[in-house]
Design goal:
single chain; 260 residues; alpha+beta; seven-stranded antiparallel beta sheet; 4 helices; 22% strand; elongated
Length: 260
């Protein structure tokens, strides 16, 4: 893209600045704003900072008409184009130039200290962006020269690995036995004294614990069956007697009818 076709962006606008005549600098000690007759500015107007490509432009314009009074092109910052004074943070010396190649140094002062801070930051941010764009362009041309990720071990650096089920020399496993807590599955102990059928509570516990149960269940012993029969007889004893008496009466009736 040609320079004339580049987009010009506005970085900062300050509505009120003052311009002063700067006496020649007698030594290398720097400029002092106290020597400028600050109560008699040579010109007052607004400042507008724009950027076109990598170059920033400080433009001093009339407040009402926008007519350009002076302009300074800044290609790097800090530089001789923009210098701070030694006795204040609100005043700067900038180098202006016209279209014929003539240059001059003038003093610029801000009424508010915050405006001077914004002026400084606007130039810093622009050239920080210019530097980043330059670095990205270099990396695009030479991608192999960029920083590489170093994954090697440094001298004296160690790592620790925790590996489960590591076998000892005798072949036994080094892992700790799993403890069965209150919430974990537990096996139902076998019934004491021979085989016995599983009760409903044991079947329910075995189902919750996901334990396999042999099917069909083992047969109960004779003593267990006898006890079950006696218990059933005790429960249904009254009904059994009633049933027996009814049976006898039926037989009696039957016999009497036959004899008749």
């Amino acid at each position: 893209m040609a320079e004339s076709e580049e987009y010009e962006s506005v970085l900062c606008v300050k509505p009120e600045v003052h311009v002063y005549r700067v006496p020649p600098r007698a030594s290398n000690r720097g400029y002092r704003a106290a020597e400028w007759q600050l109560d008699q500015p040579a010109w007052s107007g607004r400042m507008r900072i724009t950027a076109k490509g990598n170059v920033a432009y400080i433009k001093l314009e009339d407040k009402n008409s926008g007519e350009l009074f002076a302009q300074a092109s800044v290609d790097q910052f800090p530089s001789i184009t923009v210098e701070s004074v030694t006795d204040s943070s609100r005043y700067f010396v900038i180098r202006i130039e016209d279209g014929n190649g003539r240059r001059a140094f003038i003093g610029v002062g801000f009424v508010d200290r915050g405006d001077a801070f914004d002026f400084n930051v606007a130039l810093q941010d622009h050239f920080k962006w210019v530097k980043q764009q330059s670095e990205l362009a270099k990396q695009a041309l030479n991608p192999d020269q960029g920083p590489k990720l170093d994954l090697g071990f440094k001298e004296g650096q160690t790592i620790k690995l925790n590996i489960a089920n590591v076998k000892k020399k005798d072949g036994s496993s080094a892992s700790r036995p799993r403890a069965t807590g209150s919430g974990g599955p537990s096996l139902i102990p076998p019934p004491p004294g021979g085989k016995a059928s599983l009760t409903g509570e044991q079947l329910s516990s075995a189902a919750e614990a996901d334990v396999s149960i042999p099917w069909p269940p083992p047969q109960a012993s004779n003593s267990t069956a006898t006890n079950s029969t006696e218990a059933a007889a005790d429960i249904w004893g009254d009904f059994t007697k009633a049933s027996g008496s009814a049976s006898g009466q039926t037989q009696q009736s039957s016999t009497s009818w036959v004899q008749f």
